[in-house]
Amino acid sequence: MRKSFHEELGDLRKNVLVMGRVVEENVARAVESLLDRNSSLADQVIESDKKIDRMDMKIEQGCMVLLARQQPVAVDLRMINTILRMIIHLERMGDLAANIAQIAKEPTFDHYPSRIIDLFQEMAGLVQDLVGRSLRAFADEDRRLTLSLNDLDKPIDELYHQLIREFGQLHGDEELMNWATTMVLASRYLERIADHAVSIGERVAYLVTGNYADLHIVD
Amino acid sequence: MSAELEIKLCTKNLNFYYGNFKALENINSEIYKNRITAFIGPSGCGKSTYLRLLNRMNDLIDGTLVEGLVEIDGQNIYDSNIDVSELRRRVGMVFQKPNPFPKSIYENVAYGPRVHGVKNKNELDHIVEESLKRAALWKEVKHKLHTSALDLSGGQQQRLCIARVLAVDSEVLLMDEPCSSLDPSSTMKIEDLMFELKLRYTIVIVTHNMQQAARVSDYTAFFLVEEVDQPARLIEFGPTDEIFTRPRDKRTENYITGRFG
Ligand SMILES: Nc1ncnc2c1ncn2[C@@H]1O[C@H](COP(=O)(O)OP(=O)(O)OP(=O)(O)O)[C@@H](O)[C@H]1O
Ligand SMILES: [Mg+2]
């Protein structure tokens, strides 16, 4: 029944792409909701994360059934393995986006240092770009693209550490310090999202080459 | 495939005896229309016996006795007013070893329709072509319809046997280990064919190959004889997705994971 099997596997792959698109969108909307302190947008992200969780479960079940029924081998086996690993990352990225949205719902603080917001915004832009590329690498099974992801993660890490340093130097009233704490968290979530995107890239590289060495671009 | 399940065949409180030997006990099962149902279980657990009950092939064995009901579209096939040859037309059988008649490919397929009264040459030609097409054999044999069926490969002969069943407008295809004498690529052809055929027909397959049951079927029935000389029972029946990812019965789990005995 290889014909229908390949169709089913193709459907699973498409579902991962759809899930990826929702995650990508949620990351963007979470950042936007945080920067604008838009709590209704934040609520949408939190609500939409439940959809991501459902997709995660559905895709995993689909993989289980295909594994049990079709005994996939070679590239088919690697595809299912990749999907199973990818959805873990995507689900976590969705959670992290929801965490950022949760912060967006906390009380606003108007006198924040704009330098921090600038850094945060810059970092968010890079993270979104990285996430988009990791998903495109999967969609196109583009190994070259996966190789660039790790390099793109470096400036994100640097910005993150720079932000932490900036926060460390803040002095002020409780309101400012509370705000800073939530922003440290939000930056940390963004940085984690980028790491997951890099991991997705590694998985895609392994999918394409079948070479386990591709799983450890990052140490 | 429609989401709605229609029962094509079912058995209720079914017992079956070969003479004094009770081979099957209390089998309650449903076979759904336009679905593929696989029977699995260790050798001697009554899969073939049960399959043969579904079109009364066991009638041909002396001293057999059926208790309980076997229904097709709600009608008991063991009723006295049932026309058995009509029943076997509706519920056709494909065997483990391909068994074409020692005649031409054409004659093998045309035989059934002729017996059932089709005389017109054009009509027969049409039925032969259509049946061979549905059995995914037409392209390979259309240029040699009048050569001997015995010259075909095993896999082709098996598809010819399927075409023969389709030629008489069957509704149900019973297949007893149809691939066990075939090589992997012929097997895959038959499996692909089953997938096409289930759009029109109801298929029941007995297979020793657990992977095949997992691959092809929508529903799986697991039969087991728990102690020597005891009758076989239906241990578990359910969607193949579930049977092969989370069977409800420990005995099913032990069997399909190879932890048996
Ligand atoms: N014609 C027969 N006369 C008497 N007993 C029979 C006959 N055919 C089968 N049996 C017995 O009925 C029981 C079920 O046999 P059956 O052939 O249905 O099993 P099976 O599950 O199809 O086995 P296998 O996987 O080996 O084909 C066995 O104990 C067998 O010995
Ligand atoms: Mg048998």
TrEMBL record, chain A:
Keywords: Cytoplasm, Phosphate transport, Transport
Domain of life of the native organism: Bacteria
UniProt-listed InterPro entries: PhoU (IPR028366), PhoU-like_sf (IPR038078), PhoU_dom (IPR026022)
PhoU domain location: 18-103, 121-204
Major localization listed first in the record, in broad terms: cytoplasm
Transmembrane residue ranges: none
Pfam families linked: PhoU
Keyword flag Transferase: no
Keyword Cytoplasm: yes
Any one biological process term the GO annotation gives: phosphate ion transport
One GO cellular component term: cytoplasm
Cell location: Cytoplasm
Family the entry assigns: Belongs to the PhoU family.
Role of this protein: Plays a role in the regulation of phosphate uptake.
Oligomer and partners: Homodimer.
UniProt name for this protein: Phosphate-specific transport system accessory protein PhoU
Organism for this UniProt entry: Candidatus Hakubella thermalkaliphila
UniProtKB/TrEMBL annotation, chain B:
Keywords annotated in UniProt: ATP-binding, Nucleotide-binding, Translocase, Transport
GO MF entries: ATP binding; ATP hydrolysis activity; phosphate transmembrane transporter activity
GO cellular component, one term: membrane
SUPFAM superfamilies noted in UniProt: P-loop containing nucleoside triphosphate hydrolases
Gene3D superfamilies: P-loop containing nucleotide triphosphate hydrolases (3.40.50.300)
UniProt GO BP: phosphate ion transmembrane transport
ABC transporter domain ranges (all copies): 9-250
Cited InterPro entries: AAA+_ATPase (IPR003593), ABC_transporter-like_ATP-bd (IPR003439), ABC_transporter-like_CS (IPR017871), P-loop_NTPase (IPR027417), PstB-like (IPR005670)
Keyword Transmembrane helix (UniProt): no
NCBIfam families: 3a0107s01c2
Protein name: Phosphate transport system ATP-binding protein
UniProt lineage: Bacteria, Bacillati, Actinomycetota, Actinomycetota incertae sedis, Candidatus Hakubellales
